[in-house]
Amino acid sequence: MAKSRNTLLIIISFFSIYVIWGSTYLLNKIAVTELPPFMLASVRFISAGILIFIIAFILGIKLSITKKQLLNTTIAGFLFLTFGNGIVVWALKYVDSGFAALEISAQPLVVLLLMRIFEGKKIETMSVIGVVLGVIGIYLLVSQKQLISNEDTILGMIMIFACMISWGYGSLFVGKADLPSNYFVNTGYQMLMGGLMLMLNSYLFGETWSLPTDWSFKVQYSLVLLIIFGSIVAFTSFNYLLKIVSPEKVATSTYVNPIIAMGLGWYFLKEHITTQSIFAAIILLTGVYFINTKKKIIIYSRFRK
User: Fold this and answer.
1) What mean pLDDT is predicted for residues 76-84?
2) 122, burial (CB in 10 Å: exposed 0-12, middle 13-18, buried 19+)
3) Can you tell me the distance from the alpha carbon of 80 to that of 58, in angstroms, rounded to the nearest whole number?
4) CA atoms within 13 A on the CB side of 70
5) Which one, of 300, 188, 175, 298, lies nearest residue 235 by Cα?
6) Where are the domains of the chain?
């Protein structure tokens, strides 16, 4: 029975990081058209962290953590949220949401290379095939001159790649670090610390803050969805998966997210989807198959505490 519940929880968690996170590109794109990027990300994560602590307190979940765990959640918050997400939100001012998601789909390549460099992990043949397909898909994406015709777009692409490295290293760090045993509490501390650092960035970059009452309804609605589903639900699922499955398996979400992001961006924001982008998406999804071909998810004991 316990094994069945665990399998169901894994399936639900993968659904969260595949589908819900895929929709966050659209929501961030909507919000960043009116709000400064670091302010937007800061409000999102600080609000999510506070809500998590309130819910945990009501449920009687212990919130106290050690100094080492606080340091590790701060490091993770920086890698995932302050840099890994905050810069992506900034880049969305210059890059279409579907385009950004497609570029980020190359992250499994980054994760595998980082695992090879820092852990000496052998890259399996099927994973190599999947990554190669991912690289081909990315080449088809970035070689479209009509989509990358200005310098701001190119800068956005470069910064998104830097975010992929930060997120990939964060995935390896979280897999081994001493963190709060409760995934919900772990997420709360990462959200709060990452959000506070984003607030500092917002101040340093001289962003102008505004009250929610000054925002349009669509921005208010987007922030609520980002806080509840994109942050609390999906990020808790992400932290849970990092502890029980290999990082490269979790990174396959970056192959599915673009499909969701492209479809939503096209439908709601009228973003242009080229035939070449569709071919790129098909190739990237094929890469998911090759990276995740085994019939059941392999659970690595070294990722369990």
Assistant:
1) 96
2) exposed
3) 27
4) 5
5) 188
6) 16-303
